[in-house]
């Protein structure tokens, strides 16, 4: 009898974490490495949020809390959803977890039975399929091509739905592509879902506030109120408030689902960090003006990276609407050989050779379910981005 669970054979470690770890190892060995793999802002957490955390410590708010969040944070979340999204929820419809990842995992664990299918548009965040597999479900990948700006079409969604479908995982703006769905594009998808009342929507809105140009964010339950009772709206404070390490995510949805998610959490991690919860209250209730200021920096970096990558032979980089990623295709590089002698057979080979020969760490497209491409996180300094893109240009020019 095997000691390790058979379930673990269905999943793989996170490729984004693996890339970040590899880059750190090379840095520690003295190599000049620029890491473009990490999905977190390089800004510091705003001072008012840090002050709220310190005040919570000084006030002795360091004990266990309610399993799925303190009342003050749930109230702040309800206010945020009303203010930003026009959605009405009460605290009993809100769950707070240790990051958005735990919230998604709790929902899948609470709802999936063996054989249940979950539609995941590709390119996708690397953890979606493996969380579905860990929860006993079956991921159904619906590929959105670069021809549709990496956005799922209504026909593709319709074709992916079967009697076994339980969830659609929806992510806009997207990790890894930065693609954001307009109101009309999302309405076309929700119209499909209205014809299939057995399908629920898990909307990952983590990059809601990181949008550029004139793009307007919207979320499924906002676009189609008839989906309110079968939508779980997921968000967190990690990206917009530069609080990745604080580990606070949340969701709002039907009360029965929220209660079931709380049961899962009660037997796994129990409550999220009490100090982080109080910091999140301040993040949601406090000043929001720095988000727009940070977005100006992100947009400048986006434009820099898109421009420079499009000058690299064999690379085509679309302009994303949000998040802090670009997802360039490298079809023109496949089949060539690097100056270091590496054969570029696929995007993983490209990323490996790029790291080993130039010290630039990116995540290969196959990790996100669509090749040949790679993901760049531009949540780092202009100096790092300019140098990294210069190295990528030189690497591509050296391919033969």
From TrEMBL:
Keyword Transferase in record: yes
Top-level taxonomic group: Bacteria
Record field: catalytic activity: L-aspartate + 2-oxoglutarate = oxaloacetate + L-glutamate
Keywords: Aminotransferase, Pyridoxal phosphate, Transferase
Protein name: Aminotransferase
Organism: Roseicitreum antarcticum
Similarity section: Belongs to the class-I pyridoxal-phosphate-dependent aminotransferase family.
EC number(s) given by UniProt: 2.6.1.-
One of the protein's GO biological processes: amino acid metabolic process
Cofactor names: pyridoxal 5'-phosphate
